[in-house]
């Protein structure tokens, strides 16, 4: 077995070795030849992914072709044929599917769920016209905001604001609660809002909240 850079998956190797003992060779010289070839192959294979088996095999064989001097034997040629053990193909396919899914989710977060308006439009395209009521639209926008902001420092603040907003069904009371929250942040920061809350997006949100 040869290690690979792919976690949890190794190569199988079959070697073809041509060597000649020197006159001072001892009885264990054949084991020395095998140990050298296997160690060389391990070093080359450890940096190779199993997804491209021919390329990994070429790298291993290139390493085996490098000159090697030994006082006990002469290595004429060495070649390895790589394969994958039983069950590795299924594991590799699952890993590739997981990686593709992660890339797709990252793409969706960056290009869709960071934009609450696009989330709503996406759902409108997937459903029949008129299937989205105002309550569902609000929940979709709320979910998109939470996904977008979950890796930001102010996420706990947003979470608390969501909890506060759930306690007020009257839009006017929700606006008043937002005003009180803004005033509290201003007082906490010494008379001004934190810079991260005064950017273009925050100003636009404030204008929407205070017509």
How many individual β-strands? 2
Topology as a string of helices (H) and strands (E): EHHEHHHHHH
Q: Give the amount of beta strand, in percent.
A: 5-15%
Question: How can the largest sheet be summarized?
Answer: 2 strands, antiparallel
Relative helix content: 55-70%
Rounded average pLDDT: 80
Sequence of strands across the biggest β-sheet: 1-2
**Whole-number radius of gyration?**
32 Å
End-to-end CA span: 69 Å
Count of DSSP-assigned helices: 8
Which residues form runs of ≥5 with pLDDT under 50?
A: 200-211
Class by helix and strand content? mainly alpha
- What coarse outline follows from CA principal-axis ratios? elongated
Kindly describe this structure.
- This protein is mostly helical.
- Helices cover 58% and strands 10% of the residues.
- The protein has 8 helices and 2 strands, in the order E-H-H-E-H-H-H-H-H-H.
- The protein has helices spanning 29-45, 53-64, 88-113, 116-126, 134-149, 155-166, 171-188, 200-209, and strands at residues 12-21, 73-83.
- Strands 1-2 form a two-stranded antiparallel sheet.
- Helix 1 (29-45) packs across helix 2 and helix 4 (116-126) crosses helix 5 (134-149).
- Mean pLDDT is 80; it is low at 200-211.
Summarize the structure.
With 211 residues, the chain is mostly helical.
């Amino acid at each position: 077995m040869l290690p690979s850079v792919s976690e949890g998956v190794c190569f199988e190797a079959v070697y073809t070795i041509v060597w000649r003992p020197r006159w001072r060779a001892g009885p264990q010289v054949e084991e020395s030849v095998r140990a050298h070839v296997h160690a060389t192959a391990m070093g080359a294979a450890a940096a190779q992914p199993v997804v491209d088996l021919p390329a990994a095999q070429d790298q291993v064989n290139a390493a085996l072709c490098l000159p090697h001097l030994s006082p006990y034997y002469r290595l004429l040629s060495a070649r390895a044929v790589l394969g994958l053990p039983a069950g590795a193909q299924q594991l590799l396919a699952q890993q590739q599917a997981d990686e593709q899914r992660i890339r797709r989710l990252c793409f969706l977060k960056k290009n869709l769920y960071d934009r609450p308006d696009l989330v709503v439009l996406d759902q409108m395209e997937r459903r029949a016209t008129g299937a989205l009521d105002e309550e569902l639209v609000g929940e979709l926008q709320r979910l998109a905001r939470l996904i977008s902001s979950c890796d930001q420092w102010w996420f706990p603040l947003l979470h608390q604001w969501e909890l506060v907003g759930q306690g007020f069904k009257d839009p006017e009371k929700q606006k008043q609660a937002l005003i009180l929250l803004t005033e509290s942040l201003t007082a906490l920061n010494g008379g001004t809002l934190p810079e991260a809350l005064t950017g273009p997006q925050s100003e636009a949100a404030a204008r929407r909240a205070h017509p």
